[in-house]
Amino acid sequence: MFRSGNLFPVIARNEVTKQSRFRLRPLDCFAALAMTTAVGLPAILPAIAAEPGHFGYGTVATPEQIAGWDIDVRGEDGAGLPAGSGSVSKGESVFADQCAACHGTFGEGEGRFPKLAGGDGTLKDDRPELTVGSYWPYAPTLFDYINRAMPMPTPHTLSADDVYALTAYILNLNNIVPNEFVADRTSLPKVKMPNRDNFVWKDPRPDTAARPCMSACANPADIKIMSTAEGKDLTPRTTGPLDTMQPK
Amino acid sequence: MPPNFWRNLPVLSTSAIRRNPALARRSFLGLGAALTGSLALGRAANAETSGASPPADAPWSQSLGAGVVDRPYGKPADTEASVIRRNVPWLTAGTESSISFSPLQDLNGIITPNGLFFERYHAGRPDVDPAQHRLMIHGLVERPLVLTMKDILRFPSVSRIHFIECPANGGMEWRAAQLNSLQFNHGMISCAEWTGVKLSTLLEEVGLKKEAEWVMVEGADGAHMNRSLPLEKCLDDCLIVYAQNGEALRPEQGYPLRLVVPGWEGNVSVKWLRRIKIGDKPWYSREETSKYTDLMPDGTSRGFTWLIDAKSVITFPCPEKPLSGPGLYEIRGLAWTGNGKVKGVHVSVDGGINWQTAQLHEPVLSKALTRFSIPWRWDGKPALLESRVIDETGYVQPTITDLRKQRGTNSVYHNNSIQTWQVKPDGSVFDVQIG
Fold first, then answer.
1. How far is A93 from chain B (nearest CA, A)?
2. Distance between CA atoms of A177 and A170, rounded to whole angstroms?
3. Cβ(B421)–Cβ(B432) under 8 Å?
4. Are residues B350 and B428 both part of a single domain?
5. Cβ atoms B103, B151 nearer than 8 A
6. B51 lies in which domain range?
7. What's the Cα-to-Cα distance from A139 to each of A145, B122, B172, rounded to whole Å?
8. Structural domain contains residue B72
9. Do residues B391 and B367 make contact, with C-beta atoms less than 8 angstroms apart?
């Protein structure tokens, strides 16, 4: 894996490029190289090992620019959580104003919008219910997601205090935190989500090992149609204008 | 086809008449011929001959066509109006956080036309102003940068052909055959030639600190969609692209800038890309915890399952393109793998009892769609058509039964199982699952 500094693989480093690091702009680089070539042909830059600032395009990001966009919060440890705080009770009123129209007053979900609470212990069921409480592994991720993506029509417009309050309220709806819980950058990473230890973060695939059999691979008597889409009336039309079919 | 299509068939464009009145008389005569032709065509919609077929000369052969720049940005023929992206309205709460499917049944070759590339949005399609768009790269770097689109265009460019597939492609078929359609069962995949900058070039330009291990990518859409990627993949083959099949990205595909992560689930190829942050651990964002994780029958879930495993599907015949009587046909299809190149495709017409090797069509590219075909003389009897791909690692595409044994029916994502098409004696084709 590449790293900064001397660990970058060097293809054709020479003295000129060594000196140019951080100091020379590309055009200076170009001129310097041109001077080292005896002929007056336009110099073509050799394949120089890339060093930070080699091209010199763009501008160095200022702390103010970074602060404006640096919104991510890390799920595992809450790194990046901002200042501010919010209680369950405040969250209840913010939720009623900003979220309940789609998610329902108690996070039960309106129509096909996501249900936010419930589903405890259903993950092994035939029809599992994946909600914040039954599924999500990390509480800070809830703050991060509300902050970056909600409310859907006006995302990233809520104050940090309101986002903390909503986070507290939704965790409380799921019986994960008590009524008096106040969410902030210290309390939130300490909340242990019920499903946290049930994720495997290393892909175990390939998990099948089919062999490329070419003939008499199955007994014809065993080939049975187990299910068909015919007659299910779930398929929108695939010619003419777009279909508007709704759930049956 | 629009109801009045043949009646509206332009014999001579009105703008041409406006510019050259002398053409009008000829045009009038031509119109008479066109109307006669339209009646004949209307009567013989499905016949092999019509008033415009031999021995008759067609009205478009006896008139002047529209001039250059009549359509300054070209568009498909009016008769192709049914070849469009389509959605399953009952699948999602609205269209802003939803998916549309490419009409694979009407596509040829390996390149998806830009207007037919499947769509996936989390907060609708933003209209980004390229003049104000910025890409910020920061975190564990020596030299954090803000780049304009002009800056990005100056970096050395590369072009690569890669597919992008949503891992939920086929996700509605885990439990049973449900949708009788190639488009709706397989259309969350498209393939394009992407042009842009290697992500490794940009990461070398900012300089990575030695603690760097993970990269977070984030979009400028309302969802501020973000995912974590291991640095190794970013330095391997990821691209920051501004062009698709030769022109600027479509807004639907992330205009003016998107990430392409070849061979990995489409969700990580973040569109409208505005920020790249380097860190030492993954972020566990909502899109990689609550979504895009695979629930197993024992209640555990798999996370960071980025790879698109090898998959193939017969695109002709299919439910949308039935057979028209016994005879010789070319079975056609698409195969792909996130693990490099397609090594071979086998086709069965008896539900997987016997298989034959299909011909692969050039070019066979890494992490791109690959075409295959095989001739088939259909005797008019019931048939069960299947295709099975082997990729260059030796991995063989599994059956849905094999996958269910490992993963049950609730994992939503990464259903790369063999598709079975049932052909009935009348030539109609149905989506079925066999066991």
1. 23
2. 9
3. yes
4. yes
5. no
6. 5-62
7. 10, 21, 29
8. no
9. no
User: Which CATH code is given to the segment(s) A69-196?
Assistant: 1.10.760.10
Q: Which DSSP string do the residues of B50-119 spell out, in sequence order?
A: -TTSTTSPPGGGSS----TTSSSS----GGGTT-S-B--GGGSSSSSSEE-B--GGG--SSPPPGGGS--
Mutation site, B88, B302, B417, interface A, largest A CB count within 10 A: B302
pLDDT along chain B (435 residues), means of 10: 41 41 40 39 50 94 97 98 97 95 98 98 98 98 98 98 98 97 98 98 97 98 98 98 98 98 98 98 98 98 98 98 98 98 98 98 98 98 98 98 98 98 98 96
Residue B429 phi/psi, 5-degree rounding, is -125, 135
Q: State whether B216 and B147 are in the same domain.
A: yes
Domain layout of chain A by residue ranges: 1-58, 69-196
Nearest CA among B50, B72, B67, B68 for reference residue B59? B50
The reply to whether B119 and B56 lie within a common domain is no
Dihedral of alpha carbons B259, B293, A96, A103, sign = positive
Reading the block at residue A123, the tokens are 């993950």
Question: Which ipTM value was assigned to this complex?
Answer: 0.88
Strand partners, B147: B135
- A-contacting residues of B 99-118, CB under 8 Å? 103, 105
- Based on the fold, state whether residues B348 and B244 are members of the same structural domain: no
